[in-house]
Every structure is written in C-alpha cells, then in structure tokens.
Amino acid sequence: DSGVTQTPKHLITATGQRVTLRCSPRSGDLSVYWYQQSLDQGLQFLIHYYNGEERAKGNILERFSAQQFPDLHSELNLSSLELGDSALYFCASSVGLADYNEQFFGPGTRLTVL
Amino acid sequence: GESVGLHLPTLSVQEGDNSIINCAYSNSASDYFIWYKQESGKGPQFIIDIRSNMDKRQGQRVTVLLNKTVKHLSLQIAATQPGDSAVYFCAENLIYPNTGNQFYFGTGTSLTVIP
C-alpha cells in the first residue's frame, strides 16, 4: 500500500458526460501528479500540483482540468467525455517539488466511457 | 512529444537467472531517469533512478545503466524471482521553461519469471 488513495475505483459513464476523480496524497506529501494509462498510448503525464499550485502541464486535454485543495487532496475533472478517454487514471504524490522526489502511485481509477 | 521506447515488449526468464530490460530515449537533454514496476491491477512502483551525470547506479538486486552516447537505459535484475513478474517502465524527465517538469514513459516490458 503506497499510502495514496484514489476514488472511485471504477467509473462507468456515457459520452458527453463529466466526471471527477479524487486523490488523497500520502500524509506529508505536497506534490500530486496525475497520469493517464491507456492501451494505445501507455502511461502519460497529465499535470503536477505542488502545495495548491499548478507546476507542470503535460499531455492534458483542454476538456480536462485539475486542482489541489488546501488539505492537499486533488481532483481531476474530465468533461465532454469521449470513448477514447477510457483509461486508467493514476495519481501519485511526492514529498517535494524536485523531479528526484520519489513518486508514490495510487491504485488508480478505471474509467469506462460507453 | 518525446519518445521513450522499449526494445522488447515481453521477456521470459528462469527463476534465479539475471534479467535485463532495455530502454531507448530520444532527448539528449533528459536529466533524470526512473524505472518503475507495475504489477497487475496496481499502480506503478518506483524501483530505481539515475541522474544523467552518472552511468551506473545499484540498488538491492537491481542495477540501472545509462549510456548517454547511444541514449540507452537498462535495468538489470539479479537472481530474478517469481515476485519480479510484472511490467517494467522506464521514464525520462525533462524540464521545459514553459511547461515545467515533464515525464515521458516507455510502453513497458512484461517480465515473466518461470519457476
């Protein structure tokens, strides 16, 4: 158990809908990262937050947004969902801002868009 | 985007043998590399990392080698055990002025350990 929790574990929804994925980092970790893992694209970095502020943006679509709250939990919002958004979404947390801070991954949320 | 490729999608080894998993990266400006292990139904798990100013780093039963000349990274697992069966990813880190720290992952190599 990495100490990172993600909810829900599974999510099934329809095209065009909007969903929110939630991540609670390990106690004491200030950084949260979001990743998407799909069969055709592999693991892709989406976005990084540190202590409530966006620090880096990767391959995140404009339909997706994220935020990190004062209690350090984070949410990833996916809107106008398409079939191709079906994937595993992982969040990871680390203690600091540096790239060499080990990232601890949560168990993921499996999103299925029908 | 950047390309981080793996040479072999699958690898089978006998228990007790050494395993070598390879990875090619495309950007010579990459500064930091990480190997992850992902077991079925779980999130990736950090194994070992290496900075670009090093060519070798050892952990417990694992060694990462970095060859910057040919932009190649490898993960060596000594005395492979059944619990090592998983998908292994390499990841590459670059820092861009406008978009910050970016992580790029390879497609993964599935390691199967034969008892």
What does this structure look like?
- The complex is a heterodimer of chains A (114) and B (115).
- By secondary structure, chain A is mostly beta strands.
- Chain A is 0% helix and 53% strand.
- In chain A, the strands form two sheets. In chain A, strands 2, 4, 5, 6, 9, 10 and 11 form a seven-stranded mixed β-sheet that branches. Chain A has a four-stranded antiparallel β-sheet with strand order 1-3-8-7, with no helix packed on it.
- The N and C termini of chain A lie far apart (31 Å).
- The model of chain A has no long low-confidence stretch (mean pLDDT 95).
- Chain B is mainly beta and 115 residues long.
- Chain B is 0% helix and 58% strand.
- Chain B has no helices and eleven strands.
- Chain B has strands at 4-6, 10-14, 19-25, 32-38, 45-51, 56-58, 62-67, 72-77, 86-96, 100-105, 109-114.
- In chain B, strands 2, 4, 5, 9, 10 and 11 form a six-stranded mixed β-sheet that branches. A five-stranded antiparallel β-sheet of chain B has the order 1-3-8-7-6, with no helix packed on it.
- At the A-B interface, strand 5, strand 6 and strand 10 of A face strand 5, strand 9 and strand 10 of B.
